Amino acid sequence: MINKKKTTIKDIANVLGITPSAVSKALNNHPRISTKTKTAVLQVAENLNYQPNHLASALRKGKSNLIGVIIPKANSHFFSSIIEKIEDLLSKEGYNIIITQSYESYKKECRCIDALLYTQVDGIIASMANETVKLDYYEKIKAQGIPLILFDRGENDLNVDYVGIDDYQSSQVAIEHLVKQGCKRIAHIAGFSHTRIYKNRIRGYRDALKKFKLPIEDQLIVESNLQIEDGRRIMKQLLNLSKRPDGVYVSGDYAALGALQVLEEENIKVPFDISLVGFGNESFTSLVTPSMTSIEQHSTKIGELAANALLQRIATQNQNVSLNKMILQAELIVRDSSKRI
Amino acid sequence: MINKKKTTIKDIANVLGITPSAVSKALNNHPRISTKTKTAVLQVAENLNYQPNHLASALRKGKSNLIGVIIPKANSHFFSSIIEKIEDLLSKEGYNIIITQSYESYKKECRCIDALLYTQVDGIIASMANETVKLDYYEKIKAQGIPLILFDRGENDLNVDYVGIDDYQSSQVAIEHLVKQGCKRIAHIAGFSHTRIYKNRIRGYRDALKKFKLPIEDQLIVESNLQIEDGRRIMKQLLNLSKRPDGVYVSGDYAALGALQVLEEENIKVPFDISLVGFGNESFTSLVTPSMTSIEQHSTKIGELAANALLQRIATQNQNVSLNKMILQAELIVRDSSKRI
DNA sequence: TATTTTTGTTCAATCGTTGGAACAAATATA
DNA sequence: TATATTTGTTCCAACGATTGAACAAAAATA
After folding, report:
1. Under DSSP, is residue A232 helix (H, G, I), strand (E, B) or coil?
2. How near does any CA of chain A get to the CA of B256, in Å?
3. Which of A81, A117, A118 to mutate to test the interface with B (most CBs of B within 10 A)?
4. A275 - beta bridge partners?
């Protein structure tokens, strides 16, 4: 039953008594091929259930029409909606997307990059793993002349287009909000400061505290991987301080959720005893009790800008186009976890 | 600075004064090539920063080493951990994974399939979109002789290997639990019954009610897409019944979350007034208040079985191997939303 | 009618890699 | 020493599609 041998343009050519190249041109709608043979070719192609061999044409044309995407993990509102947007825009231009996940590991990220280069993608859109410090693998992409766009987690030193939000300003907005709600001692459950975005958030947090003349203490700033467990652990740690904070700004929603759990378990009233602000506006933030104030990162917009930037780069591949850093303003979504008034 | 022309085995051959085929054989560790030339080739390859052209070798070998995965949306614990496992196992065998998302839409699913076929994947692992009823596109995969494994959402009629949990039995376990907790009138927020898994869950629910001699009423069974909003809407609807249920079994955690929200808003005591059981054991189930009883689907195990089944199929491609239906027992994770005693 | 232009197709090379056949040189066996 | 075997390499034809050049036939122009 199953047709083991795949039909090729040669088969179509044989049926019609013309050459493969005529078939190829017909399929590609070449102007010099008569409408008669074009329709005939299309007809036979249909009959024989012809599927063009992408490998062959990609090899010949030197273009795979594949775009690689590297993200830490698709398992979040932020990344999955960015991907949805990228997929949407690029598929309109005839590209297919290969999604790979680094699981926040440098080693796996390298494997992702190798896999994508191996697949001969025409371009890569990536958000770096938290763990990544060395940029050698990203340099490899650049060295091969493959267009690369970074978003959210990106390094300036790489000198490639970048799309992200203004982390520094986000922190300022978050802290200003907490201060307005009456917080006087604000802790920060931070990401690792070797990552640029977390460093900027920490800087924004510090500068904002300074601005409002609030205490800046090292014990109130704890860096971590921002997983739920990290949030739990660090929140407990903060509660054990002789002088507890009355507001906590968390650099990630999952960690914030962990923190919230601990506060619930310890019967600490949120937002009145301690107010909480998360980051990322994950879908669960509006669903937990109390609902969680968080920072929206405009994922759809980021996806759109990244996709367009890549298309732009591909179009102007060998020209020397200037770098593009696109920084969006983040937005604070105020919910119950910080609404005292 | 950028080396525009990519190095090929021909370049390596030229440097060493040997033929490209010798280089190819050296790189592929052919037994008849001397260790001397092998090391020399490796050395030069390194120096010239040689990257093998996957397109060319795939074309020649008729094998792309790419595996396609189709899922509704990566944005869930269930699917993302299945993918992680699949990726892990298949990459060990030298395969790279292309993840595509159908977003529960039949049309997008068709696009995914086309994209994967176009990319000449060596096999496909898929979980069908809720919306999908017509199987023509999946037939297309089969017709091309590409190994296909379905998991979770799969159709029996397709006659391909399948990995999933025992939905019928899951419902039975869930209902039995609710009955033991004292529920006498149990509603079911169900998925659409045209999907096999949801149909089976509904059947399991009905049969369990029958077994325990509890009322089976059409108004207590509502089908939907199981999104948060569906859960909210249907829960409100159930609360408006003249005889409210005292237990609700929901076929998806997101819908269960929506239901839980409504119950909270209406100040209905969970689990005492109404007990709630979800499905999927999403990460948030343990995080909401009250924590939610749910059914664990053993995603890692499913991923493992699916990956191995695919490898098996690829290995025995033209042989006539009998079909494999792997059904796992689901496990009820009891939490506060149903723990009355 | 002779010449130019247009149209529709074929020819042949190519993309980079692979692998079986062929072949010469080195080594082993009779 | 003659023959058989092993070893290391080259040769060459693929894989399937593409593309510019070439070419004949048809149509248009002089």
Report:
1. helix
2. 11
3. A118
4. A247
Which positions of chain D lie under 7 Å from any protein Cβ? 7-20
Between CA A186 and CA A194 the distance in angstroms is 22
Contact B73 A59 (CB under 8 A): no
Cβ-in-10-Å burial (0-12, 13-18, 19+) of B234 comes to: buried
Q: Which of B57, B86, B54, B62 is nearest to B146 (CA)?
A: B62
* Nearest-CA distance A6 → chain B (Å): 8
pLDDT by residue for chain A (341 residues), tens digit each? 334 578 999 999 999 999 999 999 999 999 999 999 999 999 999 999 999 999 999 999 999 999 999 999 888 889 999 999 999 999 999 899 989 999 989 999 999 999 899 889 999 999 999 888 888 999 999 988 899 999 998 866 788 999 999 999 999 999 999 999 999 999 999 999 988 899 999 999 999 999 999 999 999 999 999 988 999 999 999 999 999 999 999 999 999 999 998 998 899 999 999 999 999 998 788 878 889 999 999 999 999 999 999 999 999 877 777 888 999 999 999 999 999 98
Confidence of residue B3 (pLDDT cuts 50, 70, 90): very low
Mean per-residue pLDDT of chain B: 92
* Strand segments (E) across B207-336: 221-224, 247-250, 275-277, 294-296, 325-328, 331-333
CA distance A46 to chain B (A): 13
Taking residues B38-54, report their average pLDDT: 95
Is B284 close to A287, i.e. CB distance below 8 A? yes
Please list, residue by residue across B50-67, b when 16 or more beta carbons sit within 10 angstroms of its beta carbon and e when fewer do.
Answer: bbbbbbbbbbeeeebbbb
B28 touches strand C (CB under 7 A): yes
Please give the residue of chain A at the shortest CA–CA distance from B7: A144
Pairing verdict, β A294-296 and A221-224: unpaired
Pair A259, A248: CB distance under 8 Å:
yes
Which amino acid, residue B311? Answer: L
Report in angstroms the alpha-carbon separations of B319 from B158, B312, B313.
18, 11, 9
Paired sense of beta strands A331-333 and A294-296, if any: antiparallel
Q: Does A159 touch chain B (CB under 8 A)?
A: no
Cβ–Cβ < 8 Å for B305, B326: yes
Q: What is the rounded end-to-end Cα distance, in angstroms, of chain B?
A: 72
A286 lies within 8 A of chain B by CB: no
- One-letter amino acid for residue A251 of the chain: S
